[in-house]
């Protein structure tokens, strides 16, 4: 398996633009997680899905952020409109089964909003 | 107070030294993860444990549930071990949410 795939790897956009980050989890994994990493706040969980259903979105900062998982092999994280404070590295991770099993991280998307 | 505290924040050591990184947490947990983040930014899961001890190569992770404490040890450290090591816990409130420590930046000098 190729591991968790994220695209794009880097994104530079202007304030106010819509940004869409994409993730393909490892085949067969039931859980998908979106994380954000900044220097100030470290790693934070934004939202996670189980079997394509959002379970906990309490980490989503505000209504400008939305995430979907239309099928088991694809998820998106959308920011609309983007702001400079959204600049961060966004990681997607997937895991198999419940019970806090090992998570496999994608390479991340480095987002810069100017 | 953060739910997950790591110490030290930064650690510099000579190649070959025995390394210990500590993690303390304040909530009841179902599992604890140790992650490694290399300078390039990629994150790798090293261990997931809920009791006792695990070993993988030169890395050893231990956890004491009663004391709410975990340690990550590296034996015979090598410059390629230089990375940020992150502790994360899954609370036992019934979901899979990870809460992260702030990380320990380890630098091994040849």
Provide a short characterization of the protein structure.
Chain A has 114 residues and is mostly beta strands.
Q: Strands, helices and their partners?
A:
The complex is a heterodimer of chains A (114) and B (110).
Chain A: E1 5-7, E2 10-13, E3 19-24, E4 31-38, E5 42-50, E6 53-56, E7 65-71, E8 74-79, E9 88-95, E10 103-105, E11 109-113
Chain B: E1 4-7, E2 10-14, E3 19-25, E4 29-37, E5 43-49, E6 52-56, E7 59-64, E8 69-74, E9 83-91, E10 98-100, E11 104-109
Parallel strand pairs in B: 2-11
Antiparallel strand pairs in B: 1-3, 3-8, 4-5, 4-9, 6-7, 7-8, 9-10, 9-11
Q: Which chain pair shows the most residues in contact?
A: A-B, 26 and 23 residues
Number of helices of chain B: 0
Secondary-structure-based class of chain A equals mainly beta
Termini separation of chain A (Å)? 36 Å
Q: What is the chains' assembly state?
A: heterodimer
What is the straight-line distance between the termini of chain B?
36 Å
Question: In percent, how much strand structure appears in the residues of chain A?
Answer: over 45%
Shape summary of chain A? globular
Please estimate the helix content of chain B.
Answer: under 10%
Q: Write down the overall geometry of chain B.
A: globular
Helix content of chain A: under 10%
E-strand count of chain A: 11
State the low-pLDDT regions of chain A, or none: none
């Amino acid at each position: 398996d190729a591991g968790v795939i994220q695209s794009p790897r880097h994104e530079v956009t202007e304030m106010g633009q819509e940004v869409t980050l994409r993730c393909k989890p490892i085949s067969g994994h039931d859980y998908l997680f979106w994380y954000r990493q900044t220097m100030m706040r470290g790693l934070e969980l934004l939202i996670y899905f189980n079997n394509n259903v959002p379970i906990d979105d309490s980490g989503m900062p505000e209504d400008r952020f939305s995430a979907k998982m239309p099928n088991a092999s694809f998820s998106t994280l959308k920011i609309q409109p983007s702001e400079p404070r959204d600049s961060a590295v966004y990681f997607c991770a997937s895991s198999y089964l419940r019970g806090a099993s090992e998570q496999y991280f994608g390479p991340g998307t480095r987002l810069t909003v100017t | 107070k953060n739910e997950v505290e790591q110490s030290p924040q930064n650690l510099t050591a000579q190649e070959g030294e025995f390394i210990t990184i500590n993690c303390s947490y304040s909530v009841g947990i179902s599992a604890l993860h140790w992650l490694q983040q290399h300078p390039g930014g990629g994150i790798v899961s090293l261990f997931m444990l809920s009791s006792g001890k695990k070993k993988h190569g030169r890395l050893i992770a231990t956890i004491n549930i009663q004391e709410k404490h975990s340690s990550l040890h590296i034996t015979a450290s090598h410059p390629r071990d230089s990375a940020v090591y992150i502790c994360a816990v899954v609370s036992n409130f019934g979901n899979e949410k990870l809460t992260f420590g702030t990380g320990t930046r380890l630098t091994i000098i040849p």
